[in-house]
């Protein structure tokens, strides 16, 4: 499967950071992979202009479940499309923790994203204590079943497995642990979507760097990466992308 490497800039990035996108455009000659950059809302339109006519796609990091309304400070999926986004990250653990987003809320947002024509990157992942209790597969399975709405398919959904304990910590699961979870996600997708479940890309996220990307991409059922910190530096991110070729 063609790999997808997505960068999640989180709450980092000013207009001056857009030079990173120029650097990535130079990489896309062979295009053996898809590249997505998800800057903060404020940079989406400018980022989309910079990425125009290249294979770098732009994504957002959240959207509101409704198409419009009296929701001060929120941004709808339709607005993201209007600004030039094609992807949106939904259900990231930082949204689940700091904004109390439940699986049900995530599912509603995914439906809103699909209605607007966006591809949703749906994040799931266990905490350190859940893994310690031997519940990683159960937790990830529960999140997946409840966060993926009707109408989701391989053409409008990507799954990102991001163990919470690995995000920003430098701790990375073993390849066996990654394969175990990714294969259970694949199985659930096939149960849910039939044959199309085989075509859904499953990304790994959590402390991915240029130095560990090749090993991670070599794991079974790993179809790319969702990269936080290392996506902020073009040379490091380019190293990760090259490992996907
Ligand atoms: O949360 C992440 C991507 O969404 C991962 O972050 P890091 O790559 O910084 O660990």
UniProtKB/TrEMBL annotation:
GO cellular component term of the entry, any: cytosol
Compartment(s): Cytoplasm
InterPro entries: Aldolase_TIM (IPR013785), TIM_sf (IPR035990), TrioseP_Isoase_bac/euk (IPR022896), Triosephosphate_isomerase (IPR000652), Triosephosphate_isomerase_AS (IPR020861)
Isomerase is among the record's keywords: yes
Molecular function in Gene Ontology: triose-phosphate isomerase activity
Catalytic activity: D-glyceraldehyde 3-phosphate = dihydroxyacetone phosphate; L-erythrulose 1-phosphate = D-erythrulose 4-phosphate
Protein keywords: Cytoplasm, Gluconeogenesis, Glycolysis, Isomerase
BP term (GO), one: glycerol catabolic process
NCBIfam families from the UniProt entry: tim (TIGR00419)
Function (record text): Involved in the gluconeogenesis. Catalyzes stereospecifically the conversion of dihydroxyacetone phosphate (DHAP) to D-glyceraldehyde-3-phosphate (G3P).
Protein name, UniProt field: Triosephosphate isomerase
């Amino acid at each position: 499967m063609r790999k997808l490497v997505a960068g999640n800039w989180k709450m980092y990035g000013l207009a001056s950071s857009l030079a990173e996108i120029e650097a990535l455009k130079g990489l896309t000659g062979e295009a053996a992979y898809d590249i997505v950059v998800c800057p903060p809302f404020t940079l989406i339109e400018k980022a989309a202009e910079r990425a125009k006519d290249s294979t770098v796609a732009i994504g957002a990091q959240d959207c509101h479940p409704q198409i419009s309304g009296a929701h001060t400070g929120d941004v709808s999926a339709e607005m993201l499309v209007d600004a030039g986004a094609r992807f949106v990250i939904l259900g990231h653990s930082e949204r689940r923790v700091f904004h109390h987003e439940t699986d049900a809320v995530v599912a509603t947002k995914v439906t809103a994203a699909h209605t607007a024509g966006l591809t949703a990157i749906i994040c799931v992942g266990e905490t350190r204590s859940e893994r310690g209790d031997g519940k990683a597969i159960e937790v990830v399975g529960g999140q997946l079943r409840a966060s993926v709405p009707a109408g989701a398919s391989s053409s409008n959904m990507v799954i990102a497995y991001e163990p919470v304990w690995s995000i920003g910590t430098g701790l990375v699961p073993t390849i066996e642990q990654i394969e175990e979870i990714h294969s259970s996600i694949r199985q659930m997708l096939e149960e849910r979507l039939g044959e199309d479940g085989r075509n859904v890309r499953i990304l790994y996220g959590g402390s991915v760097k240029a130095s560990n990307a090749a090993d991670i991409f070599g794991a079974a059922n790993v179809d790319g990466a969702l990269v936080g910190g290392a996506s902020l530096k073009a040379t490091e991110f380019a190293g990760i992308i090259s490992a996907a070729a």
